[in-house]
Each structure stands twice: as C-alpha cells, then as structure tokens.
Design brief:
The protein is mostly helical. It has 9 helices and no strands. Among the domains are: 69-180, no CATH class; 227-261. It comes from Galendromus occidentalis.
C-alpha cells in the first residue's frame, strides 16, 4: 500500500531522461559535388558468391549405370543380372552418394596420385565441390543466411589457396583453373590494396579531368602555333634581311656588333 502511494506521489519529472543524457542525432557532413563536371556514385557491392569465378553451377552429372561406391569392387556384381546391377547403381543411390561420386570425379581431374589428400590442387577441388553444392542449395533457399555465410567463407578460402598455388607453380595454377572451370585473377604483388572512398575517388577523377583538359588545351595551342608558323618564318626571314642590310649600310665592325648584343639584365 505504501509503495503504491509513493508511486502516485512521485513527480513526473523523474520518469524523463535529462537533456544532457539524451541521445543526440548524428549529422554526417559532406561537401556538395553537383558543381563538378562529372558524376560519381559509390560502386555497387558485389557479394563473394557472385564473384566466386565458377563458370558452371552445380556438379557435373555422374554415370547413373556405374555401381555405387562400395559395390563397385564386388566381383559377384559383374555376374549378377541386369536388374540387380541397376539396383546397386547410382540411379538408385541417395543424393549424398551421388554428390560424393561427382566430387570424386572432380577430384580425379587435378589429383597428383590416387592417395593425394594434402596438395593444394586437392584442397582447391574439394572446396570447389562444396561451393557448387552450396550454391545449388542456396538458389533454392535464398533466405538461409547461415548457408550464405558458410559459402562466403569457403569462397574466400579457395581464393587464398589459388593465390598460393599461383605464386608457387604458375603452370599448375593455370591447369587447375582450366580443369575446374574457374576464373581467378590474383591481386598483383607489390601493389597495396586501396579502399574506395568518396573523397579519394573525387580527387582521382578531378585530377584525371584536369589532365584531360590540360592536354586538350595544349593540343589546341600547338595547332594554333603550327598555323602561325609559316607567317612567323616569313617575318623572321624579312627581319634578318633588313638587319643585314642595315649592317652593310652602317659599316659596323665585329667589335661594334658585340657591343650592341643584348646581354640580359643580370650580366
């Protein structure tokens, strides 16, 4: 009872947040760019999934008449009737076994030997298989953000392995890209990665525009000088003839001519 009475008598000011502790709105100050002679906008973000570089989607279909993994080595299966062999083929196998068979076929394209499980080529092919299976599933369930995150991580890891292989063995790197049908261009060595910013891009575009305007004006000025060159040559020739004529009329010696030469204001 006492608590309810105290709550009724409590002033309304106690339930409000003081002004000094209120959340102030953030204002982002940017310079206007409407006066610039070009237009610039932020580049559209591209996800790692779209830029993975895979030319094909999904794994290539395996031969359905081939026996399932463990049954392929059974000699009794070769003598069995056609109906029984079909039951033990990939046509009647679950989806997981079909994907595993397609993955093994993909691994055999780049494997160095049958027991290779540690080379960069094997790891790249394994991640390529997972990427294509995940992409196939993500196209059906695009709201599965956990799958999308896993797919991004695998793509980044495969790009790292491709970059390592390209630095170690360029010939093998090109072979793996061609065999797995992957497009990958490593970032050039010795060139730091520059983050795209608004101010930096505007400065770069402004400098390019200024260089272009300068080159155009210099070309126009050079063309105008070319047009005036013929008239200048005629005037120069007539002036030199007049000077020689005056020298002959005045009978000036070489010493007198040297005294008349312009030596400059600092000599």
């Amino acid at each position: 009872m006492l608590r309810s009475v105290c709550a009724m008598l409590r002033p309304a000011v106690m339930d409000t947040v003081p002004r000094r502790f209120r959340r102030r709105p953030r204002t982002i100050l940017t310079w206007p760019i409407e006066y610039l002679p070009f237009k610039w906008t932020y580049p559209q973000k591209q996800s790692a999934i779209e830029a993975s570089g895979d030319k094909i989607s999904g794994l290539p279909p395996s031969d359905g008449q081939r026996p399932r993994g463990a049954f392929a080595k059974l000699p009794e299966l070769e003598k069995a009737p056609e109906a029984i062999r079909r039951v033990f083929s990939l046509d009647f196998a679950p989806k997981a076994e079909i994907n595993q068979a397609a993955t093994e076929e993909l691994l055999d394209l780049v494997r160095r030997h049958p027991y290779d499980k540690e080379s960069l080529e094997y790891k790249i092919a394994t991640k390529t298989s997972r990427i294509r299976l995940y992409r196939e599933a993500f196209e059906k369930h695009q709201r599965n953000y956990k799958l999308k995150g896993s797919l991004n991580v695998i793509v980044l890891k495969r790009n790292k392995l491709l970059k390592m292989l390209g630095r170690l063995d360029q010939e093998r790197y090109n072979f793996v890209k061609e065999a797995l049908q992957i497009e990958h261009t490593p970032f050039p060595l010795g060139k730091p990665h520059q983050k795209i910013t608004r101010k930096g891009e505007l400065r770069r575009l402004t400098q390019e525009w200024a260089d272009k305007v300068k080159a155009e004006r210099m070309a126009a000025f050079h063309a105008s000088l070319k047009e005036q060159q013929e008239a200048f040559e005629k005037e120069k020739k007539s002036t030199l003839e007049w000077i020689e004529k005056e020298i002959k009329e005045l009978n000036l010696t070489e010493d007198e001519l040297k005294q008349l030469e312009f030596k400059g204001i600092f000599q």
